Amino acid sequence: MKPQDSAIVITGSSRGIGLGLTSIMLERGWHVFGCSRGPSEVKHERYQHFEIDVADEKGVVRLFGGVRKSGKPLYAVLNNAGTASMNHVLTTPFDTMKKLFAVNVFGTMLCSREGAKLMLRHKMGRIINFGSVAVPYSLEGEAVYTASKSAVEAYTKVLAREMGEHGITANSVSPNPVKTDLIAGVPVEKMTRLINRQSIKRYGEFEDVLRVVDFLLDPENTFVTGQVIYLGGP
């Protein structure tokens, strides 16, 4: 598919990695449909923003309904939206548990489901979910967050199996710490300990994430699916 004729959905598009991906894809000519719980600073003739919560089914259906009404075939869904919280297992409020799973897991599932429905029309597509190195590291103080991202990884593998015969690939990108709002409140000492556990001991950069996303988006890359790619090395 040519970018100028096709659509990409990017969730969590108003800041951080999502904003960076949105800007790059617009530069490349894609029609981008983004979403976040608040407004976006992106103003572009090929960008349409939806103020929704990805955990709200009606909002997600409205987002993908907008893609359908545009007449542009949907090529990819980048499930970037996510949230985190540092809590000991004994002191994690139930509301926090529900929020983490609602956004990280159910949001990913809803957007993957609705996106795949549109991709089935032309038997081609790319679904890229976002996991975390918290899973292989079993990070202390992040049990619920880690569990939610583990669920995303498992879901991605099953999604890949069910969609493979339809020309749709599904993979997960699991970044190491990248300096975004998601880790802004994490103590520096904790981040240093985490980075020291990596094979490559440095913070991730947006460009590191982009290179993996580009690899998975490549129209010629039709045989890589059901994979979890950890940046920095687990």
UniProtKB/TrEMBL annotation:
It holds the Pfam family adh_short_C2. Its EC number is 1.1.1.100. One of its GO terms (biological process) is fatty acid elongation. Gene3D superfamilies: NAD(P)-binding Rossmann-like Domain (3.40.50.720). Keywords: Oxidoreductase. Signal peptide: none annotated. Transmembrane segments: none annotated. Coiled coil: none annotated. InterPro entries: NAD(P)-bd_dom_sf, Sc_DH/Rdtase_CS, SDR_fam. GO terms for molecular function: 3-oxoacyl-[acyl-carrier-protein] reductase (NADPH) activity. Belongs to the short-chain dehydrogenases/reductases (SDR) family. This is 3-oxoacyl-[acyl-carrier-protein] reductase FabG. It comes from Lacipirellula limnantheis.
